[in-house]
Each structure stands twice: as structure tokens, then as C-alpha cells.
């Protein structure tokens, strides 16, 4: 078990309600914990009632949050021909093809999101071993492989988030910064959870959203009613 700081333990003791609370209440509690000088990232962690060992029960997607995530997102794009200029004009930080693939194989991955046009998958496919474990592998299912590369770049630069469940059936995503207003955080979190619910696999049985927790970089998690 990790050893938490005295400050962290004191904050955890301030959570008076042992069970889940409403989202609005959780956000208020979370913001009351903000005693640090830096702008902490707010994250939502969920545990899903899925069997990650079954391919038809894995959950993956991307969603644009109403208020973004409050950070600069570096976007890399695999493109060729006219799509190179389209990606650059839309704000892509890195655009390439074989050259970008070689950089990645060499261990250089100075980006947060990787996008690709469908005609580039012959180059992107072999990078799965490197990009996959880092959650950076472009996929049509998550909206990161698309013919409309300009729109995809603009959406991810504006704060669209990509996610997938881990081996334990958990999904965790950033949903903003602690200096966002209560309303902005609530709307971002609701947008994510609404989209996550829409992705429930047909093969998944029982309760889908088994737990939902809101936390900040240096705060304990607060369970909310799913």
C-alpha cells in the first residue's frame, strides 16, 4: 500500500460521507481540497462491469468535452499528399509518414495524441507494439483514424479526449483543471459519463458503471453516484 502524506490523509478525513455523493457535491468537496499553488488536473476514474479478456467487451472511444481539459495537447499526424497541409493548417504539432514512424521506433514520442488518415495504416500498423501500450495507437474506433484529418486535429487540440479500458476494466480520463468553475467541471464529467454509458458492450452483463470516482492530482478520490 502506498504511504500517503500527512496532508493527503487529513484531506481524506474531511470526507464525511462514507458512501457515494452527488456529482455537484463531489466537485465542491474536491475544490475545498485545493490548497496547492499549482493548477491540479481533475480526473474521473471508473470501474466497468466488463470482462477485458473478451475482445467484444473492451471499451474504447473519444469524446470532446464542452470546456476542454485546460492543457495544451500536442498532436502528431500520419499523413501524405494534400492531407499534410490540411493537418498543419488545423494546428497539428508534428506531421509525417515514414520519417515520423522512424522517430517513434527510435523512442521519440513528443506528443499526446496520434492521428492518421486511413491510407497511412500500412505505415502505422507496425507501430502497434510501441504505441499500443502507451494508449497512442490510432484507431478508427476512437476517432483517431479518419479521412477528415483537419477536423480531428482541431477537436483534439481543443480538448477531445481518447480513452480505453485497462486490463482491470478501469477507465480513467482527465476532465479539466481545479480552477475550472463548478459548472464547467460538472458539465465535462457528465459529458464523459454520458458517452461512456453509450459504449456499453452488448455482451456485458450486470451493472456497467460499477464505481465512479473524482479526484485531483494531489487529493483523495471522492466516489459519486453513477
Fold blueprint:
Blueprint: H1 6-13, H2 23-32, E1 41-48, E2 60-64, E3 75-78, H3 82-90, E4 94-96, H4 98-105, E5 113-116, H5 121-124, H6 128-131, H7 149-157, E6 160-164, E7 170-177, H8 182-198, E8 209-216, E9 222-224
Parallel strand pairs: 3-4, 3-5
Antiparallel strand pairs: 1-7, 1-8, 2-6, 8-9
Helix pairs in contact: 2-8, 3-7
Question: What does this protein look like?
Answer:
The protein is α/β, with parallel strands linked by helices and 226 residues long. The protein contains eight helices and nine strands. It has a four-stranded antiparallel beta sheet with strand order 7-1-8-9, covered by helices on one side. A three-stranded parallel beta sheet has the order 4-3-5, with helices on both faces. The protein has a two-stranded antiparallel sheet with strand order 2-6. The model has no long low-confidence stretch (mean pLDDT 91).
- Strand arrangement across the biggest beta sheet: 7-1-8-9
Structural class: alpha/beta
Helix share, percent? 25-40%
Q: Helices and strands, in N-to-C order?
A: HHEEEHEHEHHHEEHEE
In round numbers, the mean pLDDT is: 91
Terminal Cα span? 27 Å
Helix count from the secondary structure assignment: 8
Low-pLDDT runs? none
Strands, total number: 9
Strand content: 15-25%
| Shape designation | globular
Largest sheet: 4 strands, antiparallel
Q: Rg, please?
A: 19 Å
What's the short story on this structure?
The chain is of the alpha/beta class and 226 residues long. The chain has helices at residues 6-13, 23-32, 82-90, 98-105, 121-124, 128-131, 149-157, 182-198, and strands at residues 41-48, 60-64, 75-78, 94-96, 113-116, 160-164, 170-177, 209-216, 222-224.
